[in-house]
Automatic annotation (TrEMBL), chain A:
Keywords: Membrane, Transmembrane, Transmembrane helix. It comes from the Bacteria. The chain crosses the membrane at residues 22-47, 59-80, 106-129, 136-161, 198-222, 259-282, 319-343, 355-382, 394-427, 470-488. InterPro entries: DUF112_TM. Residues 18-439 form the DUF112 domain. This is Tripartite tricarboxylate transporter permease. It comes from Plastoroseomonas hellenica.
Automatic annotation (TrEMBL), chain B:
Belongs to the UPF0065 (bug) family. Keywords: Signal. It comes from Plastoroseomonas hellenica. Pfam families: TctC. This is Tripartite tricarboxylate transporter substrate binding protein.
Amino acid sequence: MIDGLLHGFAVLSSWQNLSLCLLGAFLGTVVGVLPGLGPATTIALLLPITLKLDPTGAIILLAGIYYGVAYGGTLTSVLMRIPGEASSVVTCIDGYEMARKGRAGAALGIAAIGSFFASTVGILGVMLLSPPLAELVIAFGPWEYAALMLAGLSLIAFFAASGLAKAGLMALLGLMLGSVGLDPISGTPRFTFGIPELVDGINITPLALGLFGLSELLYLALVKDTKAEILRPPTSLLGFLPSKQEAKRSVAPVLRGSVLGFLVGLLPGGGAVLASFLSYAVEKRLAKRPEEFGRGAVEGVAGPEAANNAGTAGAFIPLLTLGIPSNAVTALLLGALLIHGVQPGPMILERQPEIYWGVIASMYLGNVILLVLNLPLVGLFVRALEIPRRYMAAAILAICVIGVYSTNLATFDVLLAAGFGLLGFALRRGGFDLGPLVLAYVLGPTFERSLRQGLLISDGELGILLERPIALGFILAAIATLAAAVLLRNRARVAD
Amino acid sequence: MQRRTLIATGAAALFAPRLALAAWPEREITVIVQYGAGGSTDVSTRAIAAEAEKILGVPVQIVNRPGGQGTVGVQQIAAARPDGYTIGTTGLAGLAIAPHMLDVAYGFESFTFLPAFARYLYGIAVRAESPHRTIQDLVNAAKARRTTFGATGAPNNIGMFDIARATGARFQFVPFGSGAEAVTATLGGHVDAVIQNPPEMLPALESGRLRLLASASAGRWKEYPEVPTLREQGVDVVVDSMIGFIGPKGIPQDRVERLTSAFLEAAQKPALAEILGRFGMVPSILQPQEFERVAREAHDRFGPQLREAGLARRR
Amino acid sequence: MTASARNSAKPAWPGAVEPAMTRTARCVALGGVIFAILAWREAAKLESWGWDGPGPGLLPQVLAVLMGILALAVLAWPGDPTTEPEGGARPWANRTFLTYGIAMLGIALALPWLGFVAPMLVATIAMLRFGEGTSWREALLYGLLLTAGIVLIFGTALGVPFPSGIAERALYSLGLVRGA
């Protein structure tokens, strides 16, 4: 193992690979910062260029973009309430509130340090635990996924700051939006109204950028130009860093988020997104002051940000050890490897150890680069908050429009995003939580698909669940979560 | 969408100097790919475009237009200006399968067919723990009890339905979102068998966790020359799909001929075979008329079969 | 809802107008009811039970019914009016809000026909001049700066194809952006 790692660093020590690692991490940060322009789009854009590189260099560059994005996505979430990536949606909730209280630097600092720690945990996990965890991925069949998604959906109860009926309504809306497009089993078009752009479903980019980014634009118009005053960006360098108390409160969430994110990130389908939401729910449940959540709780930034970075590393395990991509980005990485004649899978360690260890070593180095790149920049980025509203608003609009368009080159998506912007504005004024909507939107399709696959396999029998301990465990967890949420709510009401 | 393309290409044509036709093509050719970058359709198109560039003497640029299960890109090809400068690639998915599932604004009469250059390979496999060694074992098991198989969709599943019809076995199709998911479910024993392409199956096959029972294509896989095809094992079924070039209807005949000869020449380059092999494809040249005939036949055959399986939209 | 939430639900900053939260919530709930009815009508066309298990229509139909019920519940109990104080009053009478809204919708509608650059320029100028009351000069200058910045970062540096429009065609020929 140590030999392997040393070999990896030897591979990395060429000038070319070193600069590719740096370039990848930098590009990833930029791409993460720019909303809509996700890692999948960027890797797709860069794929033809990487053909000119050797396989190791190409994969180091592309992997750099992939994990760099997990860092960059936080920035616009905290500063502008525009989720840079789907996995940063949760960060919009408390990160942006922290920024409104003048703690943007602390939020970004915690996120960067938490991300670094979580990525390191993730990489160690990839190195040490790959084979047994790969077995876990295989043990997950349709029933297990359906049960896991159910458990994930039950977390909505913890996002229900505005009351269960309102949160439930939002979750249903999310599920409904998720069901647009082709039915996952029969391929029948649902809610497509003959619009070809809707056949593939509603993309997360117009949804997230509309609900969060464009609605913020409309919302900004209503607050008197007092924003800069509220924000009071600190003037000294130390002011950007988290305070001692904030740092102390973040330690446990980062630890929990790292482990949680790593495990959930292994699994196909929205791993990093689910991980961030899961971490948020757990932190809210465990927090001494849960009422601070949604009003700028540092735990609500530290946990999810650690979780989504650890999840990013976790997704490499099925790719490298089984040759199975667990999300759209790792699928592209797989394509890139295949173009270069590298077949990822269990044999990669024997056949092309320089690729395997090169990637691992580049992940270590990339994360150091990212921390060094991100921390000093926090001070610079926080200055963005001093930009007057009139300049900020137009910039939000421009970035959201081109970001949404660039994902699928579909002008229809931009129209959709504008609609979501209006919806998000109305929902916010009506006191609805957007968390349940996004969570249900992400998990719903996988839940339906897995459930129906399971029913096809078992020929409609539900009794098969009793033979599947993992699935049963998740279902019990879901029931326990809901019960706990209802009981705690009642107790709070009695105390009231 | 359509209108935008018309405006764009219309304006482009306006600016293009009108010179003698003999010098055609005189500017870059755009090839629309119906899926995103990095997939087998995209990579194979890029590979042959790189070869064709040298033959045609102008840049051949790739534009990915994913969406609508690959129909958005095909729709754009149909709506492009028929000057030969905008063409695209497609397989059976866009021409013979999607029209049965979705309302599409194109038909065979919307296109000028150009050559096809590659075929996909298919294989049927079970996990290592499974008792089945040959396709006959699997069929016998499926005669005794309902047997599940994972696949992404047509034409893979139609191949299994064909086997079921030919042998009287009971196969239950379980659709998965990607080939990788179907293979993973097979490894975990969640479904009994899988019918997919080599790229998804090779890692598991090489590590011995998955066992190839048969090549479902006309020929054997080069990685597993000892595994016979379905035909060789007495089941007269071949799963076939190809990728080829199409353009909008009405491209002038001399330009069609120029493009055809260029792509036919490019398709024979060894560098292309190398890249195709990595994505589980084999070079296989079909003349334009032949490509159109195969696609039309597949279209007519798949319709009733998909409807029978409850997978096509009702008319 | 909870005691603690109620206590901490002070306006986020001084001077914020107490919002008409319940009214908006009721409007949203009403929209939810209408949405649920329309969704039901659409979902009812789909098969709810196929030959091999639940059909494509089952989930949407269940969702539509549940959504209708919950929307009615929210209509009846729109929640604690003091939670989530957001935004000022009467957006429809606010000039800035209207300008921003029109700019957003305008770009979305103009994009397929006019491309990105020209509508963005017009929208930025409108947002600054009419929404914020800056001078024409400032609006024009910032509009040009912002649009050029976006074109250079997204189009030139990152190679994102832009939708075709009047201005884009000139940029294509300059090699600054790629065509879609």
